[in-house]
Amino acid sequence: MDLEKARFNMIEQQIRPWDVLDQEILDLLAVVKREQFVPAAYASLAFVDMEIPLPAGQNMLPPRVEARLLQDLAVRKHENVLEIGAGSGYMAALLANRARHVLTVDIVPELVELARTNLANAGVTNVDVAEGNAADGWAAAAPYDVICISGSLPALPQSILSQVKVGGRIAAIVGDLPVMEARLITRVSETEYQVVNLFETAVKPLQGAARPSQFQF
Fold first, then answer.
1. In which domain, by residue range, is 134 found?
2. Which 3 state secondary structure label does DSSP give 70?
3. What pLDDT does residue 177 have?
4. Which of 75, 106, 152, 186 could in theory staple to 194 by disulfide, Cβ–Cβ 3.0 to 4.6 A?
5. Quick check: is 207 in a domain?
6. Residue 23, H or E segment
7. Is the pLDDT assigned to residue 76 strictly greater than 70?
8. 48 found inside a domain
9. CA distance readout (Å), 215 to 15, 56, 196
């Protein structure tokens, strides 16, 4: 398999046509080696437009979804990021290239170790991986400049909304199968949030997510 050709085709045939036009993002996708974060059994599928299986029944998001969320979050070098759902560590590696620091949290111990190993092997030093259920947020290091939720939620709980700074952004995939909505939520004041619907998709639910009785969005 010609990895560089497959990577080029992923970027040009899947990601760019999905309105990912920020050249810095496209360049980053060429530099961060996705195949290093894919389980060995699925290495041949590293650049395919699909959710790749991970241990404990979890999945990596499709490349075009990862790229679009990364672009629309517009992470800046001084910002601190919370990722909910570490998975293989790939999204954290992408975010880390844009941010000052990334904290990524996963409820599955096996995925915590996988993400730590993959990030270390890739030489990523500004990511911490924590074990726990962050489906309602992660108050220990709040507030954050950016929150990226790498899995779907039935709706976005107030507890997550409250953990982003004014001016901060949240990327979330919200809803139930068969159709979910990727949203960008910007906190514009202490009490106001701006919501932009980005695209429709369907991805695996975030493990540990409950159905709280009240939602903001």
1. 3-201
2. helix
3. 87
4. 186
5. no
6. helix 23-31
7. yes
8. yes
9. 32, 28, 17
Q: Among candidates 92, 85, 149, which has minimal Cα distance to 118?
A: 92
Which structure tokens are listed for 129? Answer: 């991986």
Is the model's pLDDT at 213 over the cut of 60? no
The CA-based angle 95-68-179, given to 5 degrees, is: 120
- Assign residue 168 a region (left: φ > 0; alpha: ψ between -120 and 50; beta: otherwise): beta
pLDDT at 181: 97
Tell me whether residue 211 is in a domain: no
Question: Which residue in 44, 49, 55, 97 sits closest to 73, CA to CA?
Answer: 97
| Number of residues in the chain | 217
State residue 207's pLDDT score. Answer: 83
* 154 preceded by a cis bond (ω within 30 of 0): no
Residue with tokens 């059994």: 41
CATH number of the domain to which 185 belongs: 3.40.50.150
Decide if pLDDT at 203 tops 60. Answer: yes
Residue 217 lies in a domain: no
Q: Which of 179, 54, 47 is nearest to 106 (CA)?
A: 54
